[in-house]
Amino acid sequence: MYKALALASLSLFGAATAQQVGKEQTETHPKMSWKTCTGKGGSSCTTKSGSITLDSNWRWAHVTSGYTNCYTDNTWNSTTCQDGASCAKNCAIDGADYSGTYGISAGSDSLTLKFVTKGTYSTNIGSRTYLMESDSKYQMFNLIGNEFTFDVDVSKLPCGLNGALYFVEMAADGGMGKGNNAAGAKYGTGYCDAQCPHDIKWINGEANSDGWQPSDNDKNAGTGKYGACCPEMDIWEANSIATAYTPHPCSVKGMTRCTGTECGDGDNRYNGVCDKDGCDFNSYRMSVKDFYGPGMTLDTKKKITVVTQFVGSGSDLTEIKRFYVQDGKVFKNSDSTIEGVKGNSITDAWCEQQKTVFGDTSSFKKLGGLKEMGASLARGHVLVMSLWDDHAVNMLWLDSTYPTDKDASTPGVARGTCATDSGKPDDVEKNSPDATVIYSNIRFGPLGSTFAEPA
User: Fold this and answer.
1) Which of 135, 140, 295, 404 has the greatest count of CB atoms below 10 A from its CB?
2) Could you read off the pLDDT of 323-360 as tens digits, one per residue?
3) Has 237 been annotated as catalytic?
4) pLDDT per residue over 260-285, tens digit each?
5) What is the DSSP code (8-state) at residue 327?
């Protein structure tokens, strides 16, 4: 996976974020229920009350003594933020107007994320949200020996967009109390993933302002000296054209601040602490080109139920299986038709076959494969639900030919039918502002408890 995590946002008076708590906008988490299941076939499920919160990277922040921005567009306030620690003391993060500013709405058991939202003071692009257990704690999941099921509507997601639902090994309290972090999970702090993103503005209670470089193609984003690494399990990365699920193990536990080589920066992509590529299962990439898409076996013009099973016990993960349900019919994941890669689920053996045939570097194996991924999942992960465009490589790694300088007939290069000149953020933001993704009916429980598995 090649995602760039700086999703563009212009919140009130400019895009900003911080670590103290402001009082200008009350933070009220939109409610979203979900279910825990027992028994077999989804017949015994209990509704749990939950809510969602917006990631701190999107929120308005200002000096604690007034309204002056601490971060505007893609630049830090050099007076207020002379260093990371003092910046976190001087700046207050505020609550969010979820629907009016960010295009986020929740109701009953569903969450809708709109791509472009034009508010009174701003234009917001994309969002990243987390499922909450309480007002100040993220909901934690241990996926080993369990299955995670949800419904999704990607019918309004064109090439270049990614409606992503995934898990990362964040702290339940969002790093509350680390450094000068007084905001915590309530305000969406503590994010990390296997890309070790450098666009995270606050890490461990300090501003990531040291060495900050404004982006040359994203007026709202930039990169700092530090990255935020942690293991990541991508359940669902998708638009209406392509989808993939991908484990990303790391050699570190939980949110880890990194620099340089340990982040896997530049030419050191395969020398960092996290597996940035992961071991992905994309049916189109596995040469099954009629399985997922508009009017295909899984028709992306209609809602799809996605079931992911984590086979194992304790911290031992041996297999990640995938099923789909649509119009009352259960579909097993497609089998690979690539010569030398057999199967329809992710195992260590399958991943090694895929990496060998595709000629890819196997940092997945180097960093511990499913064993290390399982150890991370057993420690507990936070559920992330997002919508984003890609200022790095236009989402071509998900839905097109990538790398673009290779022949699409080369095994592993073709990932979807989107053109190699598609997905440019300026184009997508202009032409598809009303693009939306809807996540709903989340169910979680032991294997076979959330749906009727085929015999």
Assistant:
1) 140
2) 999 999 999 999 999 999 999 999 999 999 999 999 99
3) yes
4) 999 999 999 999 999 999 999 999 99
5) T
Q: Please answer whether residues 31 and 149 qualify as being in contact, where contact means their C-beta atoms are separated by less than 8 angstroms.
A: no
* 34/23 Cα distance (integer angstroms): 30
The single-letter code of the amino acid at 68 is T
Tokens of 241: 């054209």
Supply the DSSP symbol for 21.
E
pLDDT of residue 119: 84
CA distances 136 to 38, 93, 139, Å, are 27, 15, 10
If phi > 0 it is left, if psi is from -120 to 50 it is alpha, else beta; for residue 420 that is alpha
Per residue in 207-244, pLDDT (tens digit) is: 999 999 999 999 889 999 999 999 999 999 999 999 99
Q: Which of 244, 364, 239 is nearest to 308 (CA)?
A: 244
| pLDDT (0 to 100) of residue 122 | 83
Burial 69-86 (b: 16+ CB within 10 A, else e): bbbebbebbeebbeebee
Label residue 434 exposed, middle or buried (CB < 10 Å: 0-12, 13-18, 19+): exposed
> Mean pLDDT lowest for which of 58-62, 109-113, 151-155, 182-186?
58-62
Residue-range domains of the chain with CATH? 37-50+107-114+129-446 (2.70.100.10)
Token pair belonging to 436: 């939306």
Compute the distance between CA of residue 303 and CA of residue 283 in angstroms, rounded to an integer: 18
Q: Write out the H or E segment, with its range, that includes residue 386.
A: strand 381-389
Task: Give the burial class of 275: count Cβ atoms within 10 A of its Cβ; 0-12 exposed, 13-18 middle, 19 or more buried.
Answer: buried
Element (H, E) at 350: helix 348-358
Q: Which two tokens stand for residue 213?
A: 């470089």
Which are the contacts of 315, defined by CB distance < 8 A and separation ≥ 6? 144, 374, 375, 377, 378
pLDDT at 121 over 90: no
Provide the whole-model pTM: 0.95
* Residue among 27, 206, 232, 262 flagged as catalytic: 232
pLDDT of residue 174 exceeding 90, the answer is yes
Confidence class for position 2, pLDDT limits 50, 70, 90: very low
Q: CB neighbours of 97 closer than 8 A, spacing ≥ 6?
A: 12, 25, 119
The β-bridge partners of 213 are 223
Residue 22: pLDDT band (50, 70, 90) is: low
Q: Report how far residue 142's alpha carbon sits from residue 310's, in angstroms, rounded to the nearest whole number.
A: 10
**Which of 237, 372, 429, 453 is labelled catalytic?**
237
